[in-house]
Amino acid sequence: MGERLFLVGVLTKLEEKWEKIDSLKELSALGKSANGEVVEMILQRRERIDPAYFIGKGKAEELAQIGSDLNIDTFVFDEELSGSQIKNLEEITDRKIIDRTELILDIFAKHANTLASKIEIELTQLQYRLTRLTGKGVALSRLGGGIGTMGPGEQKLEIDRRKIRERVHTLEKRLEDIELSKQVQSKRRKDFRRIALVGYTNAGKSTIMNKLTHSNLLVEDKLFSTLDSTTRILMSPDQRKFLVTDTIGFLRKLPHGLIASFRSTLQEAIEADLRLHVIDIAHPHCELQLLAGNEILEGLGVADKPIVYIFNKIDKDIGNLPIFKRRYPDALFISAKTTGVKVVKEKIFSFFQTNKA
Question: pLDDT tens-digit profile of 200-222?
């Protein structure tokens, strides 16, 4: 049985309630992806964030009682906390406190398989925790690991800032070496036209990848089931070879610096000749997910490069499908599970037939 999680969100007067509720639901899915058991969640309305306790001392004392009554292991906050806020909340609740960013980093650490992604996630974790050392010592030493401590966390309690910075420098150098190696590999691939599947996590990219290339990639109904980019060959009817890459899923409110740190993993999305932006049309806020993906692509500098929108999961009850078809007339509307991806293949071959250079 995984850790028992209690989720905490805060709604300020400048925010929409429905969006915060949706964010908490996504946080719940993240908790399950980290093998946690989400027991309950709460959304507190506040005029402003409390600088010492985030939710205020009185509410923190309420959480302490809830933690005891429901046997909670960890309180997960939907916003980033400072080191002092973490420390203060831990002292009152006598429970581990983590935020959305640390939960995402923990999931990334669990799913990292390649050397590059393992280095990238450790580097990001160290840089994130470096500013929060005062807030994590109590929790990790008392509770001994679990969610939020995956990767370097458990062994870094006794290491001072100087040693952490030394480790960061070492990891950055190793990542530079991997980048050079990837550049050599990239040059070898220049004879092939390249396609990258991008989009929100759990939108169905891996399923489309499997259908396109007759692969057998892991497909799970979990956020971030795919972390490391995977490349396979797609053959055209006239026996031309195309390289198709399934990339890491996007997410709203991704941790600061994470996209920059994972530039190596996202390199295929940057260098591809064509990007297939997959969107889960069955999600109630699919356009927000589309916008989040577009923002990340813009951050990578490829928003103005060739992109095809693919609205997936039309086999589900989609009442507003005609609206989306009018709004995105050049997009593809498919169900990767039921109707296959024949139109996706046709779109790829047609694109490269038109753009032969």
Answer: 888 999 899 989 988 776 656 55
CA gap 164, 300 in Å, rounded = 28
Nearest of 221, 246, 218 to residue 232 by alpha carbon: 246
Q: Could you give the C-alpha distances from 102 to 87, 105, 174, 258, 262, in angstroms and in order?
A: 15, 5, 23, 11, 16
Looking at per-residue pLDDT, the higher value among 220 and 29 belongs to: 29
Q: What does pTM read for this prediction?
A: 0.78
Angle at 254 between CA 248 and CA 257, to 5 degrees: 90
Cα 140 from Cα 17, distance rounded (Å): 33
Closest by CA position to 213, among listed 182, 250, 191, 241:
241
Nearest to 78 by CA among 48, 55, 50, 111: 55
DSSP string, 172-222: HHHHHHHHHHHHHHHHHGGGSEEEEEEEBTTSSHHHHHHHHHT------SS
Report which secondary-structure segment, H or E, holds 93.
helix 83-93
If we measure between CA atoms, which residue out of 229, 231, 223 comes closest to residue 265? Answer: 229
Helix axes 205-213, 342-354, angle to 10 degrees: 80
- Is residue 276 helix, strand or coil? strand
Residue 34: the pLDDT is: 87
Q: Tell me the pLDDT band of 100, cut-offs 50, 70 and 90.
A: very high
| Domain architecture of the chain: domains with CATH | 4-155 (3.40.50.11060), 192-354 (3.40.50.300)
Q: Which residue has the tokens 């306790």?
A: 53
| Banded pLDDT at 334 (limits 50, 70, 90) | very high
Residues 6 or more apart whose Cβ sits within 8 Å of residue 82: 132, 135
